[in-house]
Write a structure and sequence with these properties.
By secondary structure, the chain is an alpha/beta fold. The protein contains 15 helices and 21 strands. The chain folds into three domains: 146 residues, Alpha-D-Glucose-1,6-Bisphosphate, Chain A, domain 3; 211 residues, Alpha-D-Glucose-1,6-Bisphosphate, Chain A, domain 3; 83 residues, Alpha-D-phosphohexomutase, C-terminal domain (TATA-Binding Protein, 2-Layer Sandwich), CATH 3.30.310.
Length: 456
Amino acid sequence: MKEFLKVGISGVRGVVGESLTPSIAASFARAFASFVGRGTVVVGRDTRPSGYALQCAIAAGLESSGCKPVLAGIVPTPTLCMLARELGSRGAIAITASHNTSEWNAMKFIGPDGVFLPPNRADELYDIYHQGDFELVTEDDMTPAVILDSPMERHVRKILDYVDVDLIRKRGFSVAVDCCNGVGALSTRKFLEEKLGCKVVACFDAPTGAFERGPEPIPENLGVLCDVVRKFKVDVGFAQDPDGDRLAIVDELGNPIGEDLTVALAVWQVLDRHRKGPVAIHMTTSRAVQRVAEDRGSEVIRTRIGEINVVQAMLENSAVVGGEGNGGVIVPAIHPCRDSYTAMALTLELMASENKTVSELRGLLPKYFMVKDKIRAQGDKIPQTLRALRRRYQDRKINLLDGVYVEMEDAWFHVRASNTEPVIRLSAEATAQTRAVEIARTIRSEIESFLSGAEA
């Protein structure tokens, strides 16, 4: 089935050569330049083979509409967000499809504050694109692109200023890292070895963009990392996604602990060792994270899915930590964006300050079990499916902030349209694994029935 260009809160993404081409990328870049006004725009990418061609097209589009491209090259997305603000630019464009497979790529648009455009601002940008209302300049007003040296320097410095580096270095941790053939292949080993004093064993650390395992850092994709952790008997395993903004953790026994618990550990460390304050997480984030925050006296704000929604809630409520349950840790004191490097540093700092292994830390967290699933669906069928599901569970406690979220006495489930793929996403969590599996299986069957038209 042909994939159409997907335009929304998570930017513009499509299959390269089909729905996303250099010509389309250049047009969106012209729209962005017209949207932000003349000045510098930072451009960065992940390791996907299509990234360089799209970068060239985007640079051309920016120049033709009066902006000066600053090319950061292959960098983590959190680095790019930080650069947008630190360099006083008009904004930035990240060329990455994050967890999508390698035939996909995308453009994510960042404002001068280093934060992804909120929905209303993104809609303004997309209106300019669709209307073709681009500012075009003559050759005299074009400013050639420049290449930025040492783009991660500012990013790393802010993390090191936040955590207790000496405490981490004294422990001399051994770490296995799975870089997913993404941006981490260029920067993660150096960060852990040179800055945090770790001994590192790496896998999938060739920056080819030809992902040798599924790009999402979910347990079923981490088999090689788990084997490496066991083989080399390291203290912890870290798995990144292709653009370096999400982190999954494997304990010293070679067991994935789940992406939600990356956030739980970060919340634990920030609230105990750095600063008290509110915590913001999205609706599908595990109740374990909420419990960790509430046990420390913090207010918990739940938001719609999407990094920008969490970030906006954090900034509006002066939250000190939070993130998304996909392993996206956000600490505004470093920068208000998801950041796997911040997550790694906080995890190591927690291990050092508590003098505990990852499995011991995991044992101290509240026990919940989550099942995540996705069901492929045509876009026009998704709204009616959600309406049918809402009717089915109207006697339960329902939250319609983002899709359909249903609370039960010992569990919850959440069903929504994906922001990034033509799928319906389903999450279910309970205090017993069998219960979570049972709920997910039941809801998936109902969704498939609704989609087939048996009950719409």
